[in-house]
Amino acid sequence: MPPMGPPGMGRGDRNKRYAEKVKPKDIKNSVKRLLAYIGEDKGKVFLAIGCVLISAGTNLAGTYMLRPIINGLGEAGVSAEERVRELFLGLAVMALIYLVGVTATFIQSRTMIKVSQNTLRRIRDDLFMKLQRLSVRYFDTNSAGDIMSRFTNDIDNIGQMFDSTLLQMFSGLLTLTGSLVLMFITNIPLAVITLLLTPVIAKVGGTIASRTRKYFSKQQETLGAVNGYIEEIITGQKVVKVFNHEEKVKGEFSGLNTQLRSVQSMANFLGGIMGPCMNAMSQVNYTVTAFVGSVLAFFTRLGKIGADSFSFAALDIGGLTVFVNYSKQFARPINEIANQVNVIMSSLAGAERVFKVMDEKPETADDTSRVRLENVKGDVVLKNVTFGYEPDKVILKNISMYAHPGQKIALVGSTGAGKTTITNLLTRFYDIDSGEITIDGTDLRDIDRESLRENIAMVLQDTHLFTGTVMENIRYGRLDATDEEVKNAAVTSSAHMFIKNMPDGYDTMLTGDGSNLSQGQRQLLNIARAALSRAPILILDEATSSVDTRTEQHINRGMDALMKNRTTFVIAHRLSTIRNADAIMVLENGEIIERGTHEELLSQRGRYYELYTGIKELD
Ligand SMILES: Nc1ncnc2c1ncn2[C@@H]1O[C@H](COP(=O)(O)OP(=O)(O)OP(=O)(O)O)[C@@H](O)[C@H]1O
Ligand SMILES: [Mg+2]
């Protein structure tokens, strides 16, 4: 979540903060990869292309049918009966052609929607799989909102292109060339006139389109800013309330909202006048061709134009009708194509953002050795470990410590000292920069990650519960555990008492990260998860910080049994809970400054003594 902007921050800055404007940078690469995705439905794609050819062809041919029909009506020396018969025949053929065209269009759009949805499903699948393989570092450095928007906005954009734009553009191009060719076949002078008018039409259309585009992309940007702001304020609503920032927030929102209104009005206005303007232009074209065409047809009738003189300009009434129809069809695709280029650009920008995640280095990218741990005793050694999250900022400096199988090692120290960081290294969420960490003598970097994490149970400092029942949530610790085992784990962690009092007991549904539970209750469920696991190494990071002291004592008794045969690392601010640890490490600024048992450290009267007595006095 981005930080809330300082008061008085300009609107432009605010927009940038919430919405990153994207333009495709490597179009070729994105197109290649999208084609690879869509290629899995090759058969369907070719079917759709075939249908587009048919529908564009029938559209042109249907119009062309007007010519014999109309000319037949004016033919001399034909009986009335014959004439009616021919008229109906002509109309029937025309209807048939259009029917084929409509069917082809129907099949084409159905097929393409299927192709599009299949492709999107594949992309979403791949993206999600990829996320599961990314390192903790990736999630620590990228905002959840941004990752989410790649699943929603960006993939939607790609879908829009596949659904309609691509084929519309293709069919537009076909119609454009087809009608141009047929116009030349029908009458060369008229075709030349239309061709001369085309750049004018394209210019007018292009000018409006580019203005519209500018406002539409501004609209997206502003919309993104409004959405980002709403999201941030909703998630931070309690903070807003507690600091009485409602008025300030209202003001900021209304500023953004007003801006959205004006941009949106302009975008819609320009989008709205596009059609009428193009119609007017095409009307000019229509009038000119109709006028010149009528003159040509008139002289053709008189015989002034015909087989012997100016035969290239000869035009019958049917030809004139057909021609003006084509010249009307001709203008339409020009501005359609202009609009679609826009959609394609934003889809490609979205595709690029999606592919960027897919190209991230997965967690296991540099794994060389894949030793699987068997029958782990739990002998953990850290030797001269140095580590920093960023290359130039060292967090842990030359840390050495060990835990013999079954020992309980406590890490204490002030906030930000590096306690959680050590646990991040043990689980290999991050790799160390120098030094060595071993489990039963095997270097951590040689151990298969899955095997490593199978052997470590962890209660994280910030707990997380998934949507599901209480039972399912505890079972997350070991999927094959029986109901009985789940309940025993709950008893051990003192969670059983409160679960029993919930409306549906172990079947109570938890939603929204367990928002219907207290902080302490959530912690108890997390401890139950760890208790269920049979991992020989246990890490408890502030596992009981939100639990009252009495419950904590309760848990500790249960935990003693739990920890009996496990190597345990405990991090606790409440030092009374770690008095019985085999060794206590006092961390300060990423260094171990004191180590020993509770009694030893107290008698040293150093930092631990300070921390312990200080806290005791406060108690
Ligand atoms: N993902 C991260 N990226 C960069 N720096 C981090 C990250 N996580 C922690 N740090 C930094 O590392 C240092 C040690 O953090 P750590 O979480 O290990 O502290 P801690 O001892 O667990 O503190 P607390 O008692 O508050 O939990 C802090 O200065 C913190 O700013
Ligand atoms: Mg911590």
Question: Describe it for me?
Answer:
The chain has 619 residues and is α/β, with parallel strands linked by helices. It folds into four domains: 185 residues, Up-down Bundle (ABC transporter transmembrane region fold); 127 residues, Up-down Bundle (ABC transporter transmembrane region fold), CATH 1.20.1560.10; 145 residues, Rossmann fold; 79 residues, Rossmann fold (3-Layer(aba) Sandwich), CATH 3.40.50. It has 20 helices and twelve strands. The strands form three sheets. The chain has a six-stranded mixed β-sheet with strand order 6-9-10-3-11-12, sandwiched between helices. A four-stranded antiparallel β-sheet has the order 2-1-4-5, with helices on one face. Strands 7-8 form a two-stranded antiparallel sheet. Strand 4 and strand 5 form a beta hairpin. Helix 1 crosses helix 8, helix 7 packs antiparallel against helix 8 and helix 8 runs antiparallel to helix 10. The chain is elongated, with a radius of gyration of 37 Å. Magnesium ion binds next to helix 12. Adenosine-5'-triphosphate binds next to helix 12.
